[in-house]
């Protein structure tokens, strides 16, 4: 049993990892066509979704999504939905990993084999995502506490840099009153979808208290604005489009004059690699548990521990195969498609959750 | 009991003990109606002669002598063979008066007395270490913890050694679940000889493959007392001056008893220093491999050039150099640990000065490597509890291996993996590594 503060960690995790999952890229593409309004709009929608999900799942104390679905929905639908969501959350992890392999090859070690890198990632995630949910939450907390100060330091460094062009930022802000696009909206809401992890972690919460809920829109909006505007400030309104991983290029533009490591890029890379690994472990853990939940019997009897590998090995193999097929452009497209479909999925989830809540209220 | 069975009793004990040079068997009283049997080496002969033999002749009547003997605290009246044997082997004298048998406490304890803590020495604060005798240890702990809530459960372990084991806890504060688990695990221990707390720790840990200690083994009574007050369970065993404390969290291994005594700011500083030391000793060798062989561009140009220049004469890849020097350092540490005090300094001189200096001049290792290895060794010694120190010593090789195979990625992956592994560990059902572990304890959270 853990306290409510872990909800905020789950939120923060997803919010920070957006840089890897192509959110800034989507926003930058639509910077003249409604990126900024969709940021504000998505803060609203995201908070609503976050609150809606925590509100509905609060009613099912100590239950994960599999238990809720299996109890309230027809067997077939619950199976289908659980497989769908498990697949999606595995996909989130895969995209994070694959873009990090790409980043590693491009920025850190061009001469290392991509197979070696992905193998390292897969090994860690597959082993660690089998830990108990509680343990993963503890690890998440510890690692966030280690990493967040460094991120704050780098942000301060970014803002006080004289090369930061506020005019470019102002230029983009003038496009405030344009019509938001679905793509940018779907991308921007990604940072709020940390709540989805509750689908499994709700099993471990004693009681969900939402006292500091105001922090979610505030922090979310701040992170979104920083995600979007800082690369613009560094590369200019037009030049920012040239970069696939605009944040890594941004970090590479910053220098630490007085430290033994000169380029901020390396600090940025290590911190984000840490975050990416934890986020993948988190996502895969949720995916795995949902998958197992789909095969759970009505009495809540779970498939055995051996089943883990029957899920993890195919997904790991799939990751390597996908990596083989995708070049950088296609990977970017996949990431964007994922973001788009994910948003629809979350709306669907909200509907199902309210239905389930209604059903269970009727039952009792 | 008829006189026939009494005779059997006597002959049974002397038969079992036949051939033991230190087994004493005497008849007391004018008509020899009092039998006295004991092991000379375990009993205090002064006690025996002053309180048993002399009064045995002075008292006019056997009845008076019997009530005199049974009035001693610690005297047990029994006829049970198993118990008699057990207690005689402990140092009790078996006195047989009329038809009844008495076990008279005349235990002689040969122990080193209360010494100074050597493995966990501190600057200020109490210097006592636990002694080799369980009674004295209980005394040391009770004196520091004067509360009726302090409970001591005694039991014996070891089929041959019959070692006394005491479980200590504060009844009001202890986590009952942990206590139950501890008692169960100790009861399940099945060994012949138990001689040290470390051994017991090994037997009551469920995981067979593990690298991190999930119990603290300490020699300081003040640490034991401090932990008991926190609601933990302590186990002390006879004939070994160490106590086991459980459950523990990772940060317990980085606390010295000094921290409480220091000014708060200094205490914090010392704590931070230890974690920095932990980080350095773990990552420095791995980082060296990365910087020298994988990503020299990470460092400032000057530093990269410095490393490259220092490595110019070295004829093999950086990881060979790292392994060579780390191994040399381990040898040096082990050698200076086990050597007799008189030769100890020689090892340090030969190893440290000659090897270090000559190796660089010969071009076998770089200068920077020598500095790095000493930094690694020194920061490893910062860890206050040696069990954790040993663990960290082993783990850094794993980090080097990851650095060899994956470079910078490997280091990050191994750090994340390590934290995940630590978070997955449990010490008696309690999380092993958790931020703010102390806060939640105060609030009564789980």
Automatic annotation (TrEMBL), chain A:
The chain crosses the membrane at residues 7-28, 34-55, 76-100, 112-129, 136-156, 182-201, 213-234, 266-286, 307-325, 337-356. Keywords: Membrane, Transmembrane, Transmembrane helix. The keyword Membrane applies. This is Spore germination protein.
TrEMBL record, chain B:
It comes from the Bacteria. The chain crosses the membrane at residues 272-291, 303-327, 364-385, 397-422. The keyword Lipoprotein does not apply. Keywords: Membrane, Transmembrane, Transmembrane helix. The keyword Transmembrane helix applies. GO terms for biological process: spore germination. Signal peptide: none annotated. Pfam families: GerA (PF03323). GO terms for cellular component: membrane. InterPro entries: Spore_Ger, UPF0353/GerABKA_families. Belongs to the GerABKA family. This is Spore germination protein. It comes from Fontibacillus phaseoli.
């Amino acid at each position: 049993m853990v306290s409510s503060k872990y909800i905020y960690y789950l939120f923060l995790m997803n919010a920070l990892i957006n840089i890897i999952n192509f959110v800034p890229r989507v926003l930058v593409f639509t910077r003249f066509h409604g990126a900024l309004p969709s940021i504000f709009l998505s803060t609203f929608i995201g908070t609503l979704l976050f609150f809606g999900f925590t509100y509905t799942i609060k009613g099912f104390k100590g239950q994960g999504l599999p238990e809720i679905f299996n109890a309230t929905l027809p067997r077939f639908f619950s199976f289908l939905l659980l497989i769908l969501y498990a697949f999606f959350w595995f996909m989130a992890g895969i995209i994070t990993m694959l873009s990090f392999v790409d980043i590693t090859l491009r920025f850190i070690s061009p001469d290392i084999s991509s197979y070696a890198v992905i193998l390292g990632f897969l090994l860690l995630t597959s082993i660690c995502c089998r830990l108990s949910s509680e343990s993963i939450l503890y690890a998440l907390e510890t690692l966030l506490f280690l990493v967040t100060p460094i991120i704050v330091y780098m942000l301060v460094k970014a803002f006080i840099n004289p090369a930061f062009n506020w005019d470019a930022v102002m230029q983009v802000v003038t496009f405030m009153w344009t019509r938001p696009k679905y793509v940018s909206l779907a991308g921007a809401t990604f940072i709020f979808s940390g709540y989805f992890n509750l689908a499994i972690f709700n099993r471990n919460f004693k009681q969900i208290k939402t006292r500091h809920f105001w922090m979610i829109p505030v922090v979310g909006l701040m992170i979104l604005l920083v995600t979007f505007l800082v690369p613009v400030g560094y590369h200019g309104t037009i030049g920012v489009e040239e970069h696939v991983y605009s944040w890594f290029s941004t970090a590479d533009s910053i220098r630490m004059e007085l430290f033994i490591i000169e380029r901020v890029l390396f600090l940025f890379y290590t911190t984000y690699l840490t975050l990416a690994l934890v986020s993948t472990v988190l996502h895969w853990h949720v995916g795995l548990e949902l998958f197992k939940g789909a095969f759970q019997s009505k009495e809540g009897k779970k498939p055995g521990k051996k089943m883990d590998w029957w899920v993890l090995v195919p997904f790991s193999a799939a990751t390597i195969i996908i990596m083989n097929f995708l070049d950088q452009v296609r990977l970017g497209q996949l990431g964007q498609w994922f973001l788009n479909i994910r948003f629809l999925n979350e709306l669907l989830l909200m509907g199902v959750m309210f239905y389930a809540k209604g059903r269970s209220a009727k039952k009792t | 009991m008829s006189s026939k069975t009494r005779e059997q009793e006597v002959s049974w004990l002397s038969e079992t003990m036949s051939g033991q040079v230190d087994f004493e068997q005497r008849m007391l009283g004018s008509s020899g109606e009092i039998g006295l049997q004991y092991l000379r080496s375990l009993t205090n002969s002064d006690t025996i002669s002053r309180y048993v033999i002399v009064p045995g002749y002075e008292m006019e009547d056997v009845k008076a002598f019997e009530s005199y003997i049974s009035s001693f605290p610690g005297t047990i009246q029994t006829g049970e063979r198993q118990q008699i044997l057990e207690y005689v082997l402990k140092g009790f004298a078996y006195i047989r008066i009329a038809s009844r048998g008495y076990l008279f406490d005349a235990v002689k304890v040969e122990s080193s007395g209360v010494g100074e803590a050597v493995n966990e020495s501190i600057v200020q604060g109490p210097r006592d270490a636990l002694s080799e005798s369980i009674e004295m240890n209980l005394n040391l702990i009770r004196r520091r913890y004067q509360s009726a809530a302090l409970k001591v459960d005694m039991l014996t372990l070891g089929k041959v050694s019959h070692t006394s084991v005491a479980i200590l806890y504060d009844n009001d504060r202890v986590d009952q679940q942990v206590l139950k688990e501890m008692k169960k695990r100790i009861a399940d221990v099945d060994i012949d000889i138990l001689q040290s707390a470390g051994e017991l720790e090994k037997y009551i840990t469920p995981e067979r493959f593990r690298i991190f200690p999930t119990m603290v083994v300490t020699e300081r009574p003040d640490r034991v007392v401090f932990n008991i007050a926190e609601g933990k369970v302590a186990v002390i065993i006879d004939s070994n001056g160490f106590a086991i404390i459980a459950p523990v969290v990772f940060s317990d291994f980085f606390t010295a008893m000094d921290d409480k005594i220091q000014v708060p700011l200094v205490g914090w500083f010392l704590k931070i220093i230890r974690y920095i030391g932990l980080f350095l000793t773990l990552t420095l060798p791995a980082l060296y491999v990365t910087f020298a062989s994988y990503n020299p561009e990470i460092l400032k140009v000057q530093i990269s050039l410095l490393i490259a220049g220092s490595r110019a004469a070295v004829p093999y890849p950086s990881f060979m150099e790292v392994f060579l020097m780390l191994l040399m350092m381990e040898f040096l540490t082990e050698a200076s640990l086990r050597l007799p005090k008189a030769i100890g300094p020689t090892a340090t001189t030969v190893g440290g000065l000659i090897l270090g200096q000559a190796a660089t001049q010969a071009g076998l290792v770089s200068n920077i490597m020598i500095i790095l290895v000493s930094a690694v060794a020194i920061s490893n010694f910062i860890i206050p509890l040696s069990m954790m120190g040993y663990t960290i010593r082993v783990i850094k090789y794993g980090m080097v291996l990851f650095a060899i195979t994956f470079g910078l990625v490997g280091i990050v992956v191994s750090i994340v993996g390590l934290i995940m592994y630590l978070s997955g560990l449990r010490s008696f059902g309690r999380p092993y590594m958790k931020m703010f572990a102390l806060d939640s304890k105060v609030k009564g959270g789980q």
